[in-house]
Specification:
Blueprint: H1 14-18, H2 23-52, H3 56-91, H4 93-100, E1 111-118, E2 123-130, H5 133-139, H6 149-156, H7 161-191, H8 198-225, E3 229-231, E4 234-236, E5 239-241, E6 244-245, H9 256-287, H10 301-307
The structure holds protoporphyrin IX containing FE (HEM).
Length: 308
């Protein structure tokens, strides 16, 4: 061997692993992310039909249903995200420092709306910041500092800050855009003019892409932000316990070429599945719903029955 110390994580308590402190928070957040994606997907296709004047009654109903789910889920996602961030501040403090670009601990910690973390100067360049806001979100007051890398790095290490920060901020920016746009659409719906807003329908045709991006960005923020740990340790009596560093988690049995080969192979399979999915989806969207669209403006007999 090359003298490197390899370690391996072993599960000693299955339920403690399944219900670790972050499980419920993360599960709920990912579920809501899936609801949002599903709802935006339905709205995208429905908005397309509405803009093209096809299957109008069907599209109005499915768009309204999708909008309801998207609005509730987007609002809930903000609450769930907040709860996640508090959980991260407790159990993975270096991840929060990377998400928010905190290099230096200050008396009161601000929240960046956007910025450009620079590891060399250890500052966030071109940052737009709400003073004291992160302290408030984490500790319910503006005066308690949120620790930065000057206090954390020696114990916890430092994840790649730029990627974690940008992925995290992208996810939140998309989440806030969803809240704003779904509430606006609900307001137009309440006034009875939703389906006249062609510009908003065009936005919803494409917004589904943002829902994909938000889910991926959240995942990148969570997984890049957990580095340099594969298994995140806990701090017990000032000592790190139970952690496994990514660098120590290398397999002795699997060689780098085999990992690369398997990534290429899986990449290919997923690419083929993606092509198949897009082809089938295109066929389904062009075909439209199976129920007869009587005259493009009236009710469907069978739909009407279903909603009576
Ligand atoms: C609206 C504001 C939002 C806030 C404050 C927020 C907050 C967070 C936080 C703190 C994490 C890290 C959790 C961890 O590392 O354990 C996270 C991860 C994640 N977020 Fe968000 N989020 C928001 C919006 C969204 C939206 C709109 C989506 C998708 C539509 C989304 C999808 C995800 C996903 C998929 C993860 C990764 C979860 C995991 O791997 O466990 N988030 N979010």
């Amino acid at each position: 061997m090359n003298g490197k110390v390899y370690q391996r994580a072993e599960i000693v308590d299955f339920w403690a692993m399944v219900f670790n402190p972050s499980t419920m928070d993360r599960l709920i957040h990912v579920w809501l992310g899936a609801f949002i994606l599903g709802a935006f997907f339905v709205m995208s296709i429905s908005a397309w039909y509405l803009l093209k004047g096809r299957h109008l009654e069907f599209a109005r109903r499915s768009f309204t249903g999708g909008l309801l789910l998207a609005t509730v889920s987007s609002l809930a996602q903000l609450l769930s995200g907040h709860s996640n961030a508090r959980m991260v501040s407790e159990y993975q403090p270096a991840k929060l420092a990377a998400m928010e670009g905190i290099y230096e601990t200050e008396n009161s910690t601000g929240l960046y709306i956007l910025g450009w973390p620079d590891d060399e100067s250890e500052t966030v360049k071109y940052g737009i910041e709400i003073p004291g806001m992160l302290s408030f979100l984490v500790h319910d007051n503006f005066k308690t500092p949120v620790p930065g890398f000057d206090q954390l790095e020696e114990t916890w290490g430092r994840p790649p800050v730029w990627i974690t920060f940008q992925a995290y901020h992208l996810m939140i920016a998309i989440g806030m855009t969803f809240i704003g746009s779904t509430l606006l659409a609900c307001w137009f719906w309440w006034r009875g003019t939703l389906f006249d807003q062609r510009w908003l329908l065009w936005y919803f045709v494409f917004a589904v892409i943002l829902a994909f991006v938000a889910n991926e960005a959240g995942w990148v923020a969570a997984e890049v932000g957990r580095q340099p740990w594969i298994v995140y340790p806990s701090l017990v009596n000032g000592e790190l316990t139970g952690g496994l560093r990514t660098s120590a988690g290398l397999s002795e049995a699997v060689r780098a070429e085999q990992v690369l080969g398997s990534i290429i192979f899986f990449g290919l399979i997923y690419f083929l599945l993606f092509v198949l999915w897009v082809t089938l989806l295109h066929q389904k969207i062009t075909h439209g719903p199976d129920i007869d669209d009587v005259d493009n403006s009236g009710e469907y007999p069978s739909m009407k029955k279903a909603f009576e």
